[in-house]
Specification:
two-stranded antiparallel ribbon, mainly alpha, 3 helices, about 40% helix, about 80 residues
Amino acid sequence: MERYWKTLQEELIFQLHLQDESSIRYFCNKYRGHCNEIRSHQGISGKTPIQFKTMELPVTNLQSVKYKKIQHAHGLFTEF
């Protein structure tokens, strides 16, 4: 979410002179559609979220997966 907010600020909010709430909502909705349907994302191998969502993912037996729980900042953040 933090990365999305920073990108939204840099690519949209700081570039336009938005006058009121309705124009902010309009352009934010347009930008969200662009990010989800057109713009490729590095974290999902250059696919758009719509393309990634429709991909067939392999089924994994979660009972056989081993993980380790690591707590950070006195348990405030947990990593698996």
